[in-house]
Amino acid sequence: MIPISKPLIGEEEKEAVIAVLESGQLAQGPRVRQFEEAFATACGVKHAIATSSGTTALLATLLAHHLRPGDEVITTPFTFIASANSILFSGARPVFVDIDEKSYNIDPRLIEEKLTPRTRAIMPVHLYGNPCDMEAIMEIADRHGLAVIEDACQAHAAAIRGKRVGSFGAGCFSFYPSKNMTTAEGGMVTTDDDEIAEQVRLIRNHGQSELYHHRSPGYNFRMTELQAALGLVQLEKLPAWTQKRIDNASYLSQQLSNVVTPQVKEGCVHVFHQYTIRVDSDREEALDRLARAGIGARVYFPLPVHQQPMYRQLGFQHSLPVAERMSREVLSLPVHPSLTQDELDTIVGEVSKL
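Above: the chain sequence. Below: its structure as tokens.
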């Protein structure tokens, strides 16, 4: 089976982890600080704050903006549920805006009609590694005095006109094993805002400004030294892996003509966390045929967030037609950097038969 994703762990990562184990310092320490500094430099921001997961990165960032019950955050329904759930756990309420069918990202043209006096922030999600239209989103946010919290959990190294995602507003990244780089579990918050950075640091560590001095409520959202050691090595490899993903995606798009292939907007760097196509044929049959051919295709995401049972129970009953249609048509193919040319050709051959 050609897997849909594959974490790449080499000897350098193993040596880095063993060095941490032998050091005896396993909790948050110097390697976490090194990883934060390196990640901030890579994103072109002043601050990067490591957390235990992408979800805790999102929640800590929302809490750092001091959201209150009744506040609203604009976001997309076409994403992993952690994006919206983090808004709920912050005490606010997600307000879903439909997506653009070409990018699969939130459609900026529809945002302003969903704004109310309770709107406090916009959370765009750079889905599949494809940057949202951040220039349009930032213009709306600036005009209405809204915070912007970028869910960049799938978009490490993605960029718009040379500016990295995670540097427009406050960025949130995940290092789950299926991501473009991994620390097994882990997350990162990026920002140029000194106050937001300070608040996130307090929230992730029980509100401590110094040992046993607690300025505010907080959680244990810390990253371990083991995770940071992995992250430092993986971050060095990320540019080469990103280029390989882009090259693999380019080859697939050049060869496939019977499906709708991903579209990349001019000036954007799509990092292809997933290579997502749309199929005209019966999708379940297409998945079965690809599986029988040894291709680990998968659907991200078959049910939009607003149609999930728990969100139905919370009263989310409105229709978002583009997101609903895309959830019935999309299908992701392997695109990860370890694919061989033979595997790429196998994918092309089998998809061309659909």
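The mean pLDDT is 97.
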